[in-house]
Amino acid sequence: MTTSTLPVPDFTARIAERARRMNASAIREILKITQEPDVISFAGGLPAPELFPIEDVRRATDAVLTRYGAAALQYSTTEGHLPLRRWIAGRAGIEPQNVQIVTGSQQGLDLLGKVLIDEGDVVLVESPTYLGALQSFQPYGPRYVQLPTDDHGIDVGALEAVLKAQPAKLLYAIPNFQNPTGRTLSLERRRRLVELTAQYGVLVIEDDPYGKLRFTGEELPGLYDLALEMAGDPEHSHVIYCSSFSKTLVPGLRDAWLQAATPIIGKVVQAKQGADLHTPTLNQMIVTELVDDVMPRQIEIVKRAYGERARDMVAKIGEHLPAGIHHTTPEGGMFLWVTLPEGIDTQPMLARAVVRKVAYVPGTPFFALGGGANTMRLSYSSATPEQIDTGLKALGETIREVLT
Amino acid sequence: MTTSTLPVPDFTARIAERARRMNASAIREILKITQEPDVISFAGGLPAPELFPIEDVRRATDAVLTRYGAAALQYSTTEGHLPLRRWIAGRAGIEPQNVQIVTGSQQGLDLLGKVLIDEGDVVLVESPTYLGALQSFQPYGPRYVQLPTDDHGIDVGALEAVLKAQPAKLLYAIPNFQNPTGRTLSLERRRRLVELTAQYGVLVIEDDPYGKLRFTGEELPGLYDLALEMAGDPEHSHVIYCSSFSKTLVPGLRDAWLQAATPIIGKVVQAKQGADLHTPTLNQMIVTELVDDVMPRQIEIVKRAYGERARDMVAKIGEHLPAGIHHTTPEGGMFLWVTLPEGIDTQPMLARAVVRKVAYVPGTPFFALGGGANTMRLSYSSATPEQIDTGLKALGETIREVLT
């Protein structure tokens, strides 16, 4: 037995091909730059922490530990805490067997990618789309096709042309107050999207973390609701629904869920067994304790606050940003999207913005196949009126500097 | 817009190839059969819930919510709660950058599979090995090679022959009180295993959920410790260490960790971003609150209880089971392994055992490539003396019935 130095391992050579396709999240790297304390950051997408129902979580934890005792801290089933699955199923008009609890929506997307995407499968995504979904799907080797969008979401005429041109496995969409644009898909387009994808045999993943946070306008049925209504049965629906308690309660408990036909749920259960056995037991019980009384109240509080902040930000864009700039006007959620004149690149501009003590996320990372150099995402969810005023003034100055 | 019925989707045709390789856990299906209330089950592998420090968890949650407020319920970093990473690193003699928090060891195994295993890569496993690891790795398409074992763990002579015969990517091993056998790898073999794998350029995943639960015999250095000592630096170690707070505190919080060189940790961070963003914030803070005072006390309580139960089970095997049966005598952990005479198949025998109100897990599912028809795993961790006596009497009768 020797204690001499071992050969130095060549780790790079041992990384799997799929992991070579992974990159550090562009946003994550940007957030690091912009986290200096005196920078006003519209870059993050964090729910407003000052609104969190901390005392309710404390009370719920206490109640759950008293009621369930050791069972709250023991291993539990992969499918999830049955009372929580029942509550979700009841609200959606489906059965608990159509509901799977996941550790954050992000895990829902990862498991769906694992279960559905073969190397080279065509996955249709909005242009732009949620960066985290691209990250979840990426290791499974999808071939992305970007769907053109406008202020009412996906262009369904263009969708039909894309479906005619090639077979696709999946369409991934965020119909309500999309991340990153804040746009909402119109009702007419929702119906057409559901019909077209059913007709062409394409499964749809509807990602809906913000749906309950509508602060203006009329609530619209989701893609899952429409497919359920048209198909008449959750077992015949080609739409898979993904949502979360992160924006309606708190994100740090990591409680979210999927709704789908049982052949999909069954495979997701098997994938989740290998991925993390189950979502933490205590956390699922805490959420169950809060959904009936605290969550509706919390949703009202959050909607009011985000609505005020969104209106404020839209007003200050008008006041402080130069003319000729396009922005979305969200009806809910946490984000809006700004399009600057062609020729401006928001990625190098970020350094100048940070010098002026303001930060945003450049738009390009949200495009699966690139583009959108002149776009940016702004989050208003955790900004004060002073930050919105000062930050947008600084952003306006930055843009004027680049334009001259 | 029509509301006619949509075409029924063909879900089976849309499941990805990797997901077709997934199966429902054999154990999970067995546990369903054996969960009738009057069956004495040695099948589960659950930590004893009557020992859980429920009041400590309540107090810790309270303290954490008071100290951190909203930050305990907000999104947090993918790498994990820094004070917890520091604590783990300090104990291991490494840096926090070598530590990644994961949502249960199971997630650690899944992320390592995702980051390291290319389709067709040779993965060396003990024969038998932990079923959950096989489930985690399976979607990534490994080619398993089974390493022969005896009562002192992996046969390192046979390992050398295997390494000479073919290039391998990974060796997965549980050196302490292995699941399912309860066996411990001897010190001499540990050293040889670390040297051989380093020499042949094979990465090692050391899975160590039970290491702190040694109730008899002398503590041995882990493979990670030995590699660190021999390599002199965590950045040069080819061993990746995986452990958990599930057996030393409680499993339901799903807190575990990996230790590895930074090129591995870096890729795991990227994979985890797509997999679940981060492990629940509150849960990591609760565990951090408990590691210094509660956990050492808890480990003593659990060791004492499991030690008594293991000795009791070994005694009752001698008393109630027919002669000619081999069993392991664990020095820690939660399981022991019984080998019946050749020709007996413990899978069909289980139905007879359940009729006699006792249950175990047949051994075959723990073999990556099959085998072990005459073996079974018994768990003593959550059994009372009465259950051990009555259950083993019933098991003895079942075996005698099959032997005649």
UniProtKB/TrEMBL annotation, chains A, B:
**InterPro entries listed in its UniProt record:** Aminotransferase_I/II_large, Class-I_PLP-dep_aminotransf, PyrdxlP-dep_Trfase, PyrdxlP-dep_Trfase_major, PyrdxlP-dep_Trfase_small
Pfam families assigned to the protein according to its UniProt record, in alphabetical order: Aminotran_1_2
Q: Which SUPFAM superfamilies match?
A: PLP-dependent transferases
Q: Which cofactors go with this protein?
A: pyridoxal 5'-phosphate
Q: What is this protein called?
A: 2-aminoadipate aminotransferase
The protein's GO terms of the molecular function aspect are:
transaminase activity
Question: What PANTHER family does this protein's entry cite?
Answer: AMINOTRANSFERASE, KYNURENINE_ALPHA-AMINOADIPATE AMINOTRANSFERASE, MITOCHONDRIAL
- Alphabetical keyword list: Aminotransferase, Pyridoxal phosphate, Transferase
Q: Which Gene3D superfamilies match?
A: Aspartate Aminotransferase, domain 1, Type I PLP-dependent aspartate aminotransferase-like (Major domain)
The Aminotransferase class I/classII large domain sits at: 53-395
